[in-house]
Amino acid sequence: MDLYFDNAATTRISGKALNAYTEASLGCWGNPSSVHRPGLEARKKLEEERERIASLMEVPASSLFFTSGATESIAAAVSSLLFTTPGKIIISSAEHEAVASWLPLLRQYGWKTAVLKAKGGTVDPDDLRAELTPDTKFVGIMAVSNVTGAIEPVKELVETVREYEKAGRRRIFFFSDSVQALGKTDYSAADLGIDGASFSAHKINGPRGIGMLYLRNPSSFRPLAQAGGQERGKRGGTENLPAISAFRAALEEWMDGRAEKNAEAKRRKDMIVTALMERGFRILSPVNSSPYIISFASKLPSEVYTRILSDRGVYVSAGSACSNNSRGEGERILLGMGFSPDAARNAVRISMSNSTTDEECMELIRIIGETADGR
Ligand code: PLP
């Protein structure tokens, strides 16, 4: 049997999501901006889907904007800074390239940048406090690491920023890339008190190419790309209604019995972690990390070991790798977390979905046992 353990990279679309996609494609194919009947029907459906997603996430529908994915949501949030007078942006060393790759451009435009070390996986609020300055305008710290599954103390970090603001300085936008958190932890954007967040459907069994930008206070947000006027002027381009419907269906499935499903995932994760430790592997994920992600140091360079596993029908990732285009990214992030160059080079990521079975986990453990020394 093929064992797919790379769900942090992407997931297989679920039957319900695919049905929702087909239904919206065939039944609601008008352009939501058109004023004739098919257009008005599409507009109605679009707003209904937004309402349903918002109610699952317990945020106002007016705070959600559909995009083509998390990378675009992040780009919209960060690039909007280019409209303002340069200040300081603070991010963590664990950020995905979709966030981190903006820093050189911002520097070119006169921005000061600071990268906080996510030691052991997470950012220390004291380190954030020490970097806050009167010209700080943007803090970007992810909710859950795609590399190790570490859960950032976002609420505490937001409180740190708000305390600093209270001392009479100007407002700071707190953004949290929440791709690996939605559905997979007890994540709540409203509870965390963040100003902005990015989400992506294909990490939760929805289709590719659809994501969301959450904005707590949309009126204060001016996007760099102004075209089209769709999404209340925040994101131009014809709305991808079938994918939005499918995103809603996928999220509904993840949120239905979320606590039980995540507890089950944690049980499976513990089973794999115990087996890996018994075989002498070092676990790189912190203890209280996402129940869906396990990072461990193999005994071979990760690209070699993942190839060996792949030949046995076990599909995992080297380090982070949402794509192989970003090889080395996982290494950069693990080094930033304080792991040794050897551990970073040999890191392998196992990532599960809520449909991963005990049988699949046991088979994974068996094959890792057989291949542990590179056989
Ligand atoms: N941020 C994180 C933490 C991710 O894991 C990913 C995955 O690729 C992204 C951003 C980018 O998401 P998307 O593929 O929707 O652009």
Give a short overview.
With 375 residues, the chain is of the alpha/beta class.
Structure description:
- The chain is of the alpha/beta class.
- The chain has 2 domains: 3-12 and 258-371, Aspartate Aminotransferase, domain 1 (Alpha-Beta Complex), CATH 3.90.1150; 15-255, Aspartate Aminotransferase, domain 2 (3-Layer(aba) Sandwich).
- The protein has helices at 15-27, 37-57, 70-79, 97-100, 103-108, 125-131, 154-166, 189-192, 241-255, 258-278, 302-311, 329-336, 341-345, 358-371; strands at 3-4, 64-67, 88-92, 112-116, 136-140, 173-177, 196-200, 211-215, 282-283, 293-297, 314-315, 317-318, 347-351.
- The chain has a 7-stranded mixed sheet with strand order 2-8-7-6-5-3-4, with helices on both faces. The protein has a 4-stranded antiparallel sheet with strand order 9-10-13-12, with helices on both faces.
- Strand 5 (136-140), helix 7 (154-166) and strand 6 form a beta-alpha-beta unit.
- The longest helix is centred in the N-terminal third of the chain and has 21 residues, at 37-57.
- It is globular, with a radius of gyration of 21 Å.
- Bound molecules: pyridoxal-5'-phosphate.
- Pyridoxal-5'-phosphate is lined by residues 69-71, 96, 98, 142, 146, 177, 179-180, 200, 211, 322.
